[in-house]
Design goal:
Layout (H helix, E strand, L loop, with lengths): L2 H10 L7 E3 L5 H6 L3 H4 L3 H15 L4 E2 L5 H6 L3 E3 L7 E4 L20 H17 L5 E4 L6 H6 L1 H10 L1 H24 L4 E5 L10 H16 L6 E4 L9 H4 L5 E5 L6 H8 L4 E4 L11 H12 L10 E4 L11 H15 L4
Parallel strand pairs: 1-10, 2-5, 5-6, 6-7, 7-8, 8-9, 9-10
Antiparallel strand pairs: 3-4
Helix pairs in contact: 4-6, 6-9, 9-10, 13-14
Length: about 350
């Protein structure tokens, strides 16, 4: 069974040779190839070379397209900052108020250089890995995109005090999300990983998630030409998980294991894949034996060993650049000792 078959089998709930192992190592490829980040996040061939190095060293069951949401903000006109050993960041949003959205043109995925970079990296990776290793496209949900364009404070103010204005913005970002996601599927992505921080109870009240976020997600996901995993983005999600249940194209949920994976299974039903594991940004601070112990405890949670639809992932943001490689090897070691047999 190759890695593409293993991930596909997990989605279908069929017997597997072992569980899938999916660390988010978008940034880590730059470390593996000693590539300057300015080049890594602008030249598709440089990014793909990094992911080839990741594949050879760690053999993950899925390879990620650039996890660099600031590039999407930059496509809208936000100022981009690439420095140090971190993924790109937004240094200044493109706009600051609802009035400016009316004058803001949606970026064209087929002409904007940042969006062309995302497409071309996906296409080159799909050509490189073909049917051996699936490609996951990373892109923010419609309700997470506005923060990249107008800043978190401006977007939160809209969500809390101007529902009509927020709905208007979500219509535009939903249109953009659908267009870009389907471009990435057409370039060879098997699945989309879609962080949805603004669905979290730590960010919005339940009524706002029900009245604003779910309708926007339902409209956008219904038009996708491939499956999506909804990602907690480091924030709690369990308390609102029932609101997100049953959305079209949503085949799985990536959640913090501390919220309770068995509770999550009860909420979403038997079919969606559950994804969980160690917090990616924390791996840089841990020792290998701590990582292995944590992964074993997640895999040994009650009923998890019987779960066919479960993938061990790294959560939160990307695995940091300076994470010791032995910490990543420790995840596979835990999987070998506890969770290989998912039949």
């Amino acid at each position: 069974m190759n890695r593409f078959q293993r991930v596909a089998g997990t989605l279908e709930g069929t017997p597997l040779d072992r569980r899938a192992f999916v660390p988010v190592m978008s940034l880590y490829g730059a470390r593996m190839t000693h590539c300057p980040l300015q080049r890594y996040y602008t030249e598709p061939a440089a990014y793909v070379a990094g992911q080839i190095a990741v594949d050879r060293a760690f053999e993950p069951d899925m390879i990620f397209s650039p996890f660099a949401f600031a590039l999407i903000g930059a496509a809208f006109g936000s100022k981009l900052k690439i420095s140090g050993i971190q993924a790109p960041n937004i240094s200044r949003p493109a706009i600051t108020s609802i009035d400016e959205w009316d004058q803001l043109a949606l970026p064209d995925p087929d002409t904007n250089p940042h969006l062309l970079y995302l497409q071309q990296t996906t296409r080159l990776m799909a050509m490189e890995f073909r049917d051996r290793v699936p490609i996951a496209a990373c892109l923010p949900a419609p309700m997470d995109i506005p923060a990249l364009v107008m800043g978190m404070e401006g977007w939160m103010e809209l969500l809390m005090f101007n529902k009509k204005g927020a709905q208007s913005v979500l219509e535009r970002t939903g249109q953009f999300f659908i267009q870009l996601a389907n471009r990435l599927f057409s370039q060879g992505a098997m699945m989309a990983f879609v962080p949805c921080a603004y669905a979290s109870p730590a960010v919005l009240m339940r009524d706002s998630v029900e009245s604003l976020i779910r309708p926007a997600m339902k409209h956008a996901l219904a038009q996708l030409k491939g499956p999506a995993v909804l990602h907690h983005c480091g924030a709690p999600l369990l308390a609102h998980l029932d609101i997100l249940r049953g959305l079209p194209s949503a085949v799985g949920f990536a959640l913090n294991y501390e919220e309770g994976l068995n509770k999550a299974r009860q909420l979403v039903g038997p079919d969606p894949v559950l994804l969980s594991g160690p917090h990616g940004p924390s791996l840089v601070e841990m020792k290998a034996d701590q990582v292995e112990t944590l992964c074993r405890s997640i895999l040994q949670e009650r009923d998890m060993k019987k779960e066919r639809r479960f993938i061990l992932v790294t959560l939160g943001a990307d695995v940091p650049y300076d994470t010791p490689p032995e910490n990543l090897d420790a995840i596979r070691k835990a999987l070998a000792e506890v969770g290989w047999n998912a039949t």
